[in-house]
Amino acid sequence: MKKIICIAALFAALIIGVQPIVHAKVPSKAYSVKKGMIHFKEPARAKGQTSMLGFAAEPIDTVRVGIIGLGMRGKGPLKRMSFIDGVKIVAICDLYQENINKGQERLAKYGMPRADEYVGEEAWKKLCQRKDINLVYIATDWNSHTPMAVYAMEQGKHVAIEVPAATSVAECWQLVDTSERTRRHCMMLENCVYDHFELTTLNMAQQGLFGEIVHVEGGYVHALDKWWNSYDRNWRLKFNQEHDGDVYATHGLGPICFALNIHRGDRMTHLVSMDTDSWIGKKLAKKSLGTEEFANGDQTSTLIRTHNGKTITLHHNVYTPQPYSREYQLTGTKGFAIKYPIQGISLEHDKMADSGVQNHEDLSSHKFLPEKAFKALMNKYRHPIQKALIEKSKKVGGHGGMDFIMDYRLIYCLRNGLPLDQDVYDAAEWSCIGDLSAASIKHNSMPVAFPDFTRGEWNKLKGHTFAK
Ligand SMILES: NC(=O)c1ccc[n+]([C@@H]2O[C@H](COP(=O)([O-])OP(=O)(O)OC[C@H]3O[C@@H](n4cnc5c(N)ncnc54)[C@H](O)[C@@H]3O)[C@@H](O)[C@H]2O)c1
């Protein structure tokens, strides 16, 4: 009966010209509505699990890595790791022999020995089972991230997963629970927290240059028209065809969560989301997937509030033609930083004097600093982890060097037995936006509560630190 009503409603919608809405595949059993707010399930911590906050594993002299997925992204670490001491790529895995061959060529080009090869749909399990691997590095399509990471941790391996680490709240909990149970690191490879402007302005924020940060912005605005056809078997377009919401939030959210000390003194409490209809997505789906339906809106907007009274805005748009932007912005009681479309900083007069940078021009706190003062300030506040790596990172490259700093830090922390820069709770908090925003959109922008992946311990650590 339900099916007949649905079909009738669809026909009625088509006849009167209303666009049928394709809703995200967030199973409605995953959450409930209480007092006008959507709450996703928050399972209690199982016996035998303990928090991974501040977790440090035993130091590893030489980190032996297995890489799964050698597509457009996964070939990058083959080069970058060759510039890092104390790391060996011992195994590589992909669906296609051709990608493996290209990977071997790349290793040879950068003076690295050949790696053992794993080819085929299930070969990654064999790679994870090897006794001699410490770190499994996953750069496959989104749907395979969590199953692979969970399996690898079960085999005693630390894992590093490309973004987003998980595609649903349920998967986020799987990552948290497996990491807590196996005591293995689970880091999402969010490279944008290591970009030069973000690191430098994080340092400024932590030293109080912007006063209290009250509002931050981030986003992922990148027209993928040139790329859609390059993803293996069209996985990305298929995913967006099936899911509405902000499905790729982590590049925008990661750096601003560090600036707000999320789960290190503050936590995101709830969000509301709204999206546009789909125009470009629909056209793409018709051309490449043979369907007229497309769940993901051309533009998705999300507003988040934190426990300490801060706000965050996030945007996702991978469709319309416009300049690339991650919309990075920090708004503080004493200053302001913005990265797109132009980098700029604005400070109150007294903060300008405090910064130790002489500026003889007539400044107004409502204007951006002039170029000379801006450059001087950026140099003065260069983040300590960048200072030693800036030249090398530019030479090695990878999105201007941030990818190299990310891999370097991962290996450095593992070798020295230090907590990683990004923990499993970051991975979960930044990846759950997809499901949360889709649920809000499905219910006419109803507020959605953030699950507390730390299970009440979000205020235990005070501020974000990069371990030394
Ligand atoms: N951090 C960044 O800046 C950034 C940039 C681009 C992509 N990414 C992320 O990297 C990941 C990969 O994206 P991509 O652009 O390289 O996609 P891609 O389609 O080019 O590559 C995916 C690769 O995974 C392999 N693969 C799929 N299933 C597999 C399996 N079962 N076993 C072994 N290999 C398998 C495929 O053969 C393919 O080579 C995605 O999560 C994406 O979001 C991150």
Structure report:
- The chain is α/β, with parallel strands linked by helices and 468 residues long.
- It has a domain at 193-385 and 425-449: Dihydrodipicolinate Reductase, domain 2 (2-Layer Sandwich).
- 35% of the residues lie in helices and 18% in strands.
- Strand 1 and strand 2 (37-40) form a beta hairpin.
- It binds nicotinamide-adenine-dinucleotide.
- Nicotinamide-adenine-dinucleotide binds at residues 68-74, 93-96, 99, 121, 124, 139-142, 144, 162-163, 189, 191, 231-232, 399.
Summarize the structure.
The chain has 468 residues and is α/β, with parallel strands linked by helices. It is built from 17 helices and 16 strands.
What strand order characterises the main sheet?
A: 1-2-16-10-11-12-9-13-14-15
Instruction: Report strand %.
Output: 15-25%
User: Which molecules are bound besides the chains?
Assistant: nicotinamide-adenine-dinucleotide
Class inferred from helices and paired strands: alpha/beta
Can you name the CATH architecture of the domain at 193-385 and 425-449? 2-Layer Sandwich
Helix content bin = 25-40%
Search tags:
468 residues, alpha/beta, Dihydrodipicolinate Reductase, domain 2, 17 helices
